[in-house]
Amino acid sequence: MKKHLFALLILIALIIFTAAPVWAAEEGDNSGTAVPGNTLPSGNSLSPNIIVSKFSTGADAVTAGRDFTLTYTLYNTNSSISVQNVMVKVNGGETFSLAKDSDTYYIDKIKAKGGVSHSSSFTSSVETGPGSYPITLSITFEYYDDGAKYSGTSELSISIPVVQAERVQIIKAGIGSESEPVYVNEEYGVDYDFINTGFSKMLNTELRLYNNDNGDYITSAYLGTVNPSTEMSGSSYLYATFGSTGEKNLKLVVAYEDQNMNTYTVEKEFTVKVEEAPAPVETEDIEEGGSFLIWGLGLILLIAAAAVLIVVLRRWRRKKRQAAEFWDDDEDDLEDEEPSQETETESGSPSGQVGEDNEDN
């Protein structure tokens, strides 16, 4: 009898020892005491984790300076444990700012293997360069595992591609003018003028010329990189030759890439009238006319030189004659004065000589 009683006491003690941890867990669940988030769960299940399962902005990329809406889904990866009291803080960094929403919102519960979607509106500066920029989500949540309450966190990042709006304008495209007609089978430069009014570089820029009637490619020219706020113009890179006369409908295309290797094109249509080249002038006529002109000019110059020489000779002779007459007059005056002086010296008085002559008479 004592042996049976002793065995019964041992069995009761074993039962009490085995059930004690279960009672302790039930008491912990009723108390609601939270366990720090960095403490591993006591059960065999994995800790729940929250990820972004999908997101969308409505396009492949957003345009700098324009508002956009980001829609995303927060997904609980755990297959058996739900999370609750979820707080989400949204941060657009230096690139994006919330357009009209709060940067923090609350989710009551996300079931195991379940998701909750949310949308936020953002905007960016018009000067934002092409590239990919992050929007971060800082998440805190709580969950229960084996009756104990735990806390967890997740740091998520969504990469948003940004492009610049297409802001390339073709100002002018043409070949020839009213004063410079276009002739068949002759090479002409395409006169173009376009401006990059955007805030990003145009990479691998190329000019292309097409026949707008049938779409045939005519020619092209590579320009390379065109910086922001830069105007490109000229007619020395792109050349065209037309093999027939008539009105030609053409199209100038400016093709380029942005920093994300996205390709863009800008087009401008124009018309060119091609004419027959004028008939060439006979070479012999040109040579004969040229020779006659040269001989005529030579004759005119010779006559003019002779006339000038005659005038100079006449003036020279006139001056020489006037000088000779001047010296002749001076000699006559001297001859008139010399006899009077001799008479006065010999007679002493001119009047006396005259008297004697009178008496002789």
Shape descriptor: rod-shaped
Please tell me how large the radius of gyration is.
Answer: 57 Å
**Element pattern in H and E:** HEEEEEEEEEEEEEEEEEEEEHH
Number of strands: 20
Main beta sheet: 6 strands, mixed
Class by SSE composition: alpha+beta
The number of helical segments is: 3
Quick gist of this model?
This protein has 361 residues and is of the alpha+beta class. The protein contains three helices and 20 strands.
Overview of the molecule:
This protein starts with a helix and ends with a helix. It is an alpha+beta fold. Helix content is 29%, strand content 42%. The chain is built from 3 helices and 20 strands. The strands form 5 sheets. Strands 1, 3, 5, 7, 9 and 10 form a 6-stranded mixed sheet that branches. The chain has a 5-stranded mixed sheet with strand order 12-20-19-15-16, with no helix packed on it. A 4-stranded antiparallel sheet has the order 2-4-8-6, with no helix packed on it.
Helix and strand arrangement:
Elements: H1 2-31, E1 34-35, E2 50-56, E3 62-63, E4 68-76, E5 83-91, E6 96-98, E7 104-110, E8 115-124, E9 131-145, E10 148-163, E11 168-174, E12 182-183, E13 187-189, E14 191-196, E15 202-211, E16 217-226, E17 230-234, E18 239-241, E19 246-257, E20 263-275, H2 283-347, H3 350-360
